[in-house]
Amino acid sequence: MKEEMDNLKKEILSQYPRLSEKDVFTFRCHKDVPCFNDCCGDVNIFLTPYDIIRLKNHLGISSQVFLQKYTLSPFDQKQKYPVILLKMTDEKKKCPFNTEDGCSVYADRPWSCRMYPLGLASPKEGAVEEEEFYFLMKEDVCKGFGEQGEQSVEGWIEGQGIKEYDEIGRLYKEITLHDFYVKGGELSPEKMEMFHLVCYNIDKFRRFLFDSTFFDKFEIADSLKEKLKTDDVELFRFGCDWIKFSIYGEKTMTIKEEVKKAKVSEIRTRSTPRE
Ligand code: SF4
Ligand code: SF4
Hints:
This protein is mostly helical. The chain has 13 helices and eight strands. The strands form four sheets. Strands 1-8 form a two-stranded antiparallel ribbon.
């Protein structure tokens, strides 16, 4: 999977025309195109943390149930962090949310479904946002390019509700394109698990925080603690700080003074030689 993705990226970087937000393209998708629904099957759709939050809330189920029922977690030795794919149905390899009338989760469809036929790429790993560019994924199956309808890239982004996804997606990029990986850092199995918990299993992450002594150890404002009980996006934001602290060693969280003192005294007791 990683090799396949790397090859596609190379092709995009070397051959696809790069588009800016002001560029225009001709494309329209509607129910009467002969290819209607053809793009909603046999496709690799990587889900972002915000995709999962929107979808599981749309379906009224927990992140744990959503992951079990609708996703795959492919594993590759070269993989730096866990990723999640939408699982196609066994028989027809269709998206589980595809119906004769189109997408049954349209209001909360994933980022990549909103973006299509636009793609977004960055020239190098860890690239800053200014270096990213858009491109068009012209596939034979898609007849939308033959339809009348001219729009700018920025108009498409606006119309598809992508900005909200991008705002939260920026947090995900900060942790996936982190310097830790650029410098060759690797996640231990425990850290992989923590990354997975925060990014994809947000309801279980909430239980991890509230059913443990977590809040006894860190300085967290009561107002934030209250928000974390119900607000998934705020919880993910908090989780990103936790990943930066616990995995990348950044000072994004503050340990309570009394916890620090207790730790120092424990170390002293352990290192004092017995008579
Ligand atoms: S989520 Fe909706 S738009 Fe995306 S592939 Fe599935 S049916 Fe199609
Ligand atoms: S293949 Fe293209 S035109 Fe056809 S339904 Fe999908 S996005 Fe629309």
